Automatic annotation (TrEMBL), chain A:
InterPro entries assigned: Ald_Oxase/Xan_DH_a/b (IPR000674), AldOxase/xan_DH_MoCoBD1 (IPR008274), AldOxase/xan_DH_MoCoBD2 (IPR046867), AldOxase/xan_DH_Mopterin-bd_sf (IPR037165), N-heterocyclic_Hydroxylase (IPR052516), OxRdtase_Mopterin-bd_su_IorB (IPR012368), TAT_signal (IPR006311)
GO molecular function, one term: oxidoreductase activity
All residue ranges annotated as the Aldehyde oxidase/xanthine dehydrogenase a/b hammerhead domain in the record: 202-279
Protein name: Xanthine dehydrogenase family protein molybdopterin-binding subunit
Gene3D superfamilies cross-referenced by the UniProt entry: Aldehyde oxidase/xanthine dehydrogenase, a/b hammerhead, Aldehyde oxidase/xanthine dehydrogenase, molybdopterin binding domain
Source organism of the structure: Paramagnetospirillum kuznetsovii
Length: 738, 166
């Protein structure tokens, strides 16, 4: 089923649209009336109903980050009305233009900005229409509270709903339509509450997990005990005890479908499958060494400034060297992934929490053997997702099962499925070397990275279900842009960043929050502190002296002053086990500016680190909704502290072994520090991302603070008590050698 | 403990429990977790499936006014008990004071953990109407959140108790 509805149907359906099953089945004749999803058409993004309410069609989705209020704020501002008049439709491939995946911190910066331009185009058109009706010049008119009227308040006025007819605007989105001046903003910049919170905390919000269709069955896919194992046989005899349970087997894809979720689970448990003895993995302990061993598929110099090789080859200088490692990590979403699929012989509708509905649409179409335009993905909220968790795979599971049984099927992953099979953040290994810092000058710096190489042009992470079922799909690796921020942002004379590209990753990778940048910043900002420590200079003052960018200087000094930074070399000479550290990033060297200062205490006997205070100064340009932004930043800080202190996916030669919250622990309430977020609003700058940048400097600030507290330099994540103790022992041994 | 035969006999006729103040009779496997009964048989999806192992708290409900993990309670064990789910506390128009505090503090990102957080808070405030921040942290220690909403949640707990917010 593709969405082919008249505009009036769409508007009448209102909120029910989001849930989707109120949609009437279209007849082919209605196809001509399909709503455009063309991103160059104003009607692609925006519809105005006769009562003056506005529907905004957004290709980006709200995963809990607050787009559901921020994007309406941007549209409302340009349109001259309140957000309560706006209904936002998100990530429905039949209704929303493809604005790219909700990833890379682009929700506002790209998605919101595009919709703002659509709203500005609409405002221009509405004023033009009203001017013609009133027979007055356009430049005396504006939209105020949803009415077009003269700026002076005199003369006629007309509601925007009276100006646009049934067929919409029929205009191209005008990239030059004038935007309102930030000085006049009434809606943008306000901490408006998110519209979904009341429903979320009263149990009235429909997550994909809660979505039900009439006649829907429950499916459960049985994944092999080893990654890549083949299915040798299935003993179905145990299933006799269950009424109406069906087995679906397509090559190595094995699932059961039942009328009730409980029956599906029990049947899946009872089923005896025999799998090949397969050992395709290297085990997590072998990853670090394996990254240096290859096989490699090439190398790249991604940053080259001056002649780093010559500077580092100077026989008169003792080059400082260090190696940093970031392990494989899971998205570890709170709710295991879920999806509902209704696959018919000629069409399919998939309800999914995907961050990339448009992007995955061709993959599902190919998997199901359907034309792309007969497959519709409808976004429903899932459990928070930070790149790509198991949602897209659960959707593929549901789609294959639904196709096999000819009924709508819901698939709910288990905790083991999610931690075991979600695509993982890839490991990163970095070796750094630099000439010693002298008088605030570093002559040469080199970062060498070992990273899995993302496959060029690969549209999406390959789907588990398609792979198991032997259905052709483009194979390869997805990682996100993981080489950025591998060079110091400070005025180092000669810098080189080299990447050694690995042919493969230890587990199927995907992007995970702030892909690559967190580990790169951990290494670069940690190593920069090592240079400062060696030179016995203060890390903050040195950064400020070497930084050329005023916005960077501002965030650094504000974050540091929030924790009462007192300049001195590290480690802390008072040596009471308390220390502070700072780190800074200009995200991707072109986006948000963030500095984080942190205070920690370290127990020398146990090696246990307690984070006491975190201060974050954040400049992402124009702030749309400061309250939602603060929450995003706090979330990024807490999640990244968790990743830094606790998280590593463990696996043996067969499969992931950290498949519950005991073996893959995350940070809990007991360890939540005091957090201060200092937002620097820049009304005249473009809005930039708020979801990723604040995560980036966290590990380095933490490692720098630990060093300040006790003289231990930890360069491997997770920063466990054992690693702190080992680093302490190393520091003590060095001291003795003097 | 009732005998297995007794449990099965009861199940055939259906097991009675009070859910959000209403008497409900549920048939089927008495050994299935209450969470599945609530979500699938009774259409109450406020309680969420997070782990099925008692490790995360997403599935919490109140059973005779105690917060319990409904993934760890069987239908048979819930027989005759009074169950309150997130929906039963309040709704969007008339939220429970704890829900109202969560709304005021905007204490949800994805909100998948919110059910457990609200339930744990209601149970805490019933025991300790004016908890200290540390007591609040302790009471919520077994409830996981991946989005990092913890500080807002703590603020909501303190707001609901009428205390200063952290
Ligand atoms: S789902 Fe019950 S504790 Fe996690
Ligand atoms: S808000 Fe997403 S898990 Fe807590």
């Amino acid at each position: 089923m593709t969405a082919v509805l008249s505009r009036r149907d769409l508007l009448r359906a209102g909120g029910a649209l989001v849930v989707g099953f109120a949609l009437p089945r279209p007849s082919p004749a209605q196809a001509a009336m399909a709503k455009t999803v063309d991103a160059t058409e104003l009607d692609g993004f925006l519809a105005i109903s006769p009562d003056g309410s506005v529907t905004v069609y957004c290709g980006k989705v709200d995963l809990g980050q607050g787009l559901r209020i921020a994007i309406p704020q941007m549209a409302a501002e340009e349109l001259g009305l309140g957000v309560e008049r706006i209904t936002l439709i998100e990530g429905d491939t039949a209704l929303t233009p493809d604005q790219g995946p909700t990833a890379g911190s682009t929700g506002i910066a790209k998605g919101g900005v595009q919709i703002r331009q659509a709203a500005a185009t609409a405002r221009q058109a509405l004023i033009r229409l009203a001017a013609a009706r009133f027979d007055v010049p356009e430049d005396g008119l504006d939209i105020v509270d949803g009415d077009v009227r003269s700026l002076s308040g005199e003369g006629p006025s007309l509601g925007i709903g009276d100006l646009v007819g049934e067929h919409g605007f029929g205009l191209k989105l005008d990239p030059k339509a004038p935007l309102r001046s930030p000085a006049s903003y009434k809606v943008v910049g306000k901490p408006l509450p998110r519209p979904d919170v009341p429903a979320k905390v009263t149990g009235r919000h429909t997550y994909v997990h809660d979505f039900r269709l009439p006649g829907m069955l429950h499916g459960k896919v049985i994944r092999p005990p080893a990654v890549g194992a083949s299915l040798l046989g299935v003993d179905e005899s145990a299933l006799k005890a269950f009424k109406g349970v069906r087995i679906v087997r397509i090559k190595d894809f094995l699932g059961v479908v039942a009328a009730s979720e409980w029956d599906a689970l029990r049947a899946a448990d009872a089923l005896k499958a025999t799998w090949s003895q397969t050992e395709n993995l290297i085990g997590h302990e072998a990853v670090r060494d394996a990254m240096k061993a290859g096989p490699f598929v090439g190398e790249d110099i991604v940053v080259s400034k001056g002649d780093a090789a010559t500077a580092l080859a100077d026989p008169d200088v003792a080059v400082l060297k260090a190696e940093y490692y970031w392990p494989v990590q899971s998205h570890a979403s709170m709710g295991p992934s879920c999806a509902v699929a209704d696959v018919k012989s000629d069409s399919a509708t998939l309800w999914t929490a995907s961050q990339a509905t448009h992007r995955f649409r061709p993959a599902y179409a190919a998997m199901l053997g359907l034309p792309v335009d007969m497959v519709r993905l409808i976004y429903l909220d899932g459990s928070g997702c930070y790149g790509m968790n198991g949602h897209d795979d659960a959707c593929a599971d549901a789609a294959l099962l639904s196709k096999a049984v000819g009924k709508p099927v819901r698939v709910q992953w288990s905790r083991e499925d999610e931690l075991g099979w979600d695509p993982k953040g890839p490991p990163q290994l970095l070796a750094l070397e630099a000439t010693p810092m002298e008088g605030g000058v570093v002559a040469g710096w080199r970062t060498e990275m070992w990273l899995p190489k993302a496959t060029a042009g690969l549209p999406n992470v390959p789907l588990l279900a398609a792979q198991a079922a032997g259905i052709d799909q483009p194979m390869g690796l997805v990682t996100g842009l993981i080489t950025q921020n591998g060079d110091p942002p400070y005025g180092v004379a000669a810098v080189q960043v080299k990447v050694n590209w690995l042919a493969d990753a230890p587990l199927r990778p995907s992007n995970i929050r702030a892909p690559g940048k967190i580990a790169n910043s951990f290494a670069v900002e940690g190593f920069f502190d090592e240079l400062c420590n060696q030179a016995k200079v203060d890390g903050l003052i040195t950064r400020l002296q070497m930084l050329k960018d005023l916005r960077g200087i501002i965030v650094l000094s504000r974050a540091a002053s929030l924790i009462g930074w007192k300049p001195r070399p590290s480690p802390n000479p008072e040596s009471d086990g308390v220390g502070r550290g700072v780190a800074y990033v200009h995200y991707k060297h072109s986006e948000t500016y963030v500095a984080v200062a942190m205070e920690v205490s370290v127990d020398r006997d146990s090696g246990k680190v307690a984070v006491r205070r975190v201060a974050c100064a954040h400049d992402c340009g124009l702030v749309i909704n400061p309250d939602a932004l603060r929450l995003q930043i706090e979330g990024a800080i807490i999640q990244t502290l968790s990743r830094t202190l606790l998280e590593e996916v463990t696996f043996d030669t067969k499969a992931v072994t950290s498949t519950d919250w005991a073996s893959y622990p995350i940070l809990g309430f007991a360890d939540i520090p005091d957090i201060t977020v200092d937002l620097i609003n820049q009304p005249n700058q473009p809005p930039m991302g708020g979801g990723e940048a604040a995560a980036t400097p966290i590990p380095a600030a933490l490692a720098n603070a630990i060093f300040d507290a006790c003289g231990a330099r930890v360069r491997t994540v997770p920063i466990t008590p054992e690693r702190v103790k080992a680093a302490l022992a190393e520091a003590d041994a060095k001291d003795k050698l003097g | 403990m009732p005998t297995k035969a007794a449990v099965n006999k009861k199940a055939a006729a259906g097991i009675a429990l009070a859910v959000n103040g209403q008497k409900r009779t549920v048939a089927g496997d008495p050994n299935r977790p209450l969470l599945y009964v609530l979500r699938n048989d009774l259409g109450l999806t406020g309680a969420k499936f997070g782990c099925g192992k008692g490790q995360c708290g997403a599935c919490s409900v109140l059973m005779n006014n105690e917060a319990v993990r409904s993934c760890q309670v069987t239908l048979a064990q819930a027989a005759g008990k009074s169950i309150t789910t997130l929906e039963g506390l309040g709704d969007i128009k008339t939220p429970h004071p704890v829900q109202a505090a969560f709304i005021a503090e905007q204490a949800a990102q994805c909100g998948y953990c919110a059910n457990g957080m609200v339930m744990a808070t209601v149970a805490l405030l019933a025991r300790t109407p004016e908890p200290s921040l540390d007591e609040a942290k302790q009471a919520l220690a077994g409830n996981l959140c991946r989005c990092g909403t913890h500080r807002r949640i703590l603020r909501a707990v303190m707001r609901a108790s009428g205390r200063a917010q952290p």
